[in-house]
Write a structure and sequence with these properties.
- This protein is mainly β and 468 residues long.
- The protein has three domains: 248 residues, Sandwich (Immunoglobulin-like), CATH 2.60.40.60; 120 residues, Immunoglobulin-like (Sandwich); 74 residues, Immunoglobulin-like (Sandwich), CATH 2.60.40.1930.
- The strands form eight sheets. An eight-stranded antiparallel barrel has the order 1-2-5-4-3-6-7-18.
- A hairpin with a 4-residue loop joins strand 4 and strand 5.
- The chain is globular and about 75 Å long.
- It has two helices and 33 strands.
- This is Putative secreted protein (Por secretion system target).
- It comes from Pontibacter virosus.
- Keywords: Signal.
Length: 468
């Protein structure tokens, strides 16, 4: 009996590296920038999130550069994301010999076992992280898409789940989001779709990259892959695929984060928030304690605005009996006006003491709330449809000293709201389809105002109104 026991222990020790290696990978993506002096040279960053408690390790990785070359890259640094997850960074440069499209990819051995939405055995399926770059093109793409958010999250049984990686592009290119089949290395060593994969029913992604699942029902680990495509003048100029594992479980002692004042802001038909250069933005969040936890709480913002330090922001906290109120505020400058939104995420979590025991693997301490801010005039539809109403509204003359006219489309329940620089409504008008003539309210001083035209309370047009 003792011999059998010793043999079992020896077998377990021999296979331990294989077993642990299949349990530490959580999510990953590859981002890049282009050398402004050499359109064939790229600087890459591979970000890999791993489970801290695992004994598996990746001190270096082998990256296939898409041109027949494989580059060995040492890990630049590893930092704790939380008490259970680490963020590993690998940095390198590569120069291509000729212009072309190149698929840069890394293979991880292997995925976790028991993934719900993959055919078993999932721990024999490799993890493939993929990014496409276009080298030496006439229109240089200096910056690929990057993430200001974090692909580490959990969903809870019976609770609507929302998450956002908060992708951004420093060149201002339009980002398109698609949920795709995760990739793996096929038996012929090609990049291929994971066999037997299915997307959880009801899981979707919005035009802002917000991933939503209205009713997670089955506990266990899932995998999703989000393709972030950079678009310029209607053409793809590059993309990356973010591969992420996450767990559906019962909520334990995690707090809850929510955005409180959205209904007091100017909200477009797609759920985004409308603001203007010089108009202060104030987002009020609330982080509610979980009754099952007595740990102190912490919160911090994520997003392009803070990552790139586009403008000074303010973050204030106020303690309450059940948590604390968080106010995140900033005033966008004229240089922040653009046609794409700024994505903002607020993360809340308990502050745990490190005990040396980082189990359980699957626990995620965080909860998030998100806001999507447009600064300036819209250049694409605000409604959920693909097109503007057949007749575009017009407001003229603008600037104006006295009367002004609004040509309204043939839509029901039309209203015009005029706001001052602080966002306060200072004038409101009911419109009918066709021509509407109005006198300037005597109480309104000269200056810059904004207006919003709504139909059945949904914005269909925003703009600036200059009163002289």
């Amino acid at each position: 009996m003792k011999k059998i026991y010793h043999l079992f222990c020896l077998t377990a020790l021999l296979f331990a590296p294989l077993l642990t290696q299949a349990t530490h990978l959580y999510s990953g993506h590859i981002s890049y920038t282009t050398d402004p002096q050499n359109p064939l040279k790229f600087d890459f960053v591979f970000t890999l999130y791993t489970k801290t408690a695992s004994t598996a390790d990746d001190p270096f990785v082998s990256i296939n550069m898409g041109d027949g070359k494989v580059q060995t890259v040492e890990r630049a640094r590893i930092t704790p994301y939380s008490y259970r997850y680490d963020k590993e960074i690998f940095i390198w440069s590569h120069t291509y010999a000729a212009p072309g499209n190149y698929t840069v990819h890394w293979t991880g051995e292997n995925r976790n076992g028991g993934v719900i939405n993959m055919a078993a055995p999932s721990d024999l399926i490799t993890l493939k992280i993929v990014t496409l770059v276009k080298a030496g093109t006439a229109t240089q793409n200096l910056h690929g898409a990057k993430l200001a958010g974090v692909p580490v999250t959990a969903a809870y049984i019976g609770e609507p789940w929302t998450h956002n990686f908060l992708a951004y592009d420093e060149d201002g290119d339009y980002l398109k989001y698609d949920l795709v089949t995760p990739k793996h290395r096929s038996s012929s060593f090609e990049i291929a779709d994971v066999p037997g994969y299915w997307l959880p029913e009801g899981l979707t992604v919005s035009e802002f990259g917000e991933i939503h699942w209205p009713n997670p029902a089955q506990k266990g680990e899932y995998v999703i892959a989000l393709k972030v495509t950079e678009m310029r003048d209607g053409r793809e100029i590059g993309h990356m695929i973010v591969d992420m594992s996450f767990v559906v479980t019962e909520r334990a002692d995690q707090p809850k984060m929510s955005l409180l004042n959205k209904n007091r802001l100017t909200v477009n038909g797609d759920g985004s928030i409308q603001t203007w250069p010089g108009q202060p933005v104030k987002l009020e969040f609330y982080l509610q304690k979980n009754p099952a936890s007595d740990l102190p709480l912490s919160a911090r913002p994520f997003g392009e605005i803070d990552t790139l330090e586009l403008i000074n922001t303010s973050l204030t906290f106020r303690d309450t009996a059940d948590g604390f109120a968080i106010t995140y505020s900033f005033t966008p400058g004229p240089d922040m006006e653009r046609s794409e939104p700024y994505l903002i995420g607020m993360r809340g979590r308990p502050r745990e003491e490190f005990t040396g025991d980082r189990l359980p693997y699957t626990k995620v301490e965080d909860d998030w709330a998100f806001a999507y801010i447009y600064v300036g005039e819209q250049r694409r539809p605000l409604s959920s449809g693909d097109d503007f109403p057949p007749e575009r509204p017009k407001l003229y003359p603008n600037p104006t000293r006295g009367e002004f006219t609004v040509l309204a489309p043939d839509l029901p329940a039309l209203h015009l709201l005029v706001r001052d620089i602080t966002g306060k409504v200072v004038a409101s008008y009911t419109l009918r389809p066709g021509r509407n003539d109005f006198a300037r309210p005597a109480k309104l001083a000269s200056g810059l105002y904004t207006y919003t035209l709504t139909s059945q309370l949904s914005p269909i047009e925003t703009g600036k109104l200059m009163l002289q």
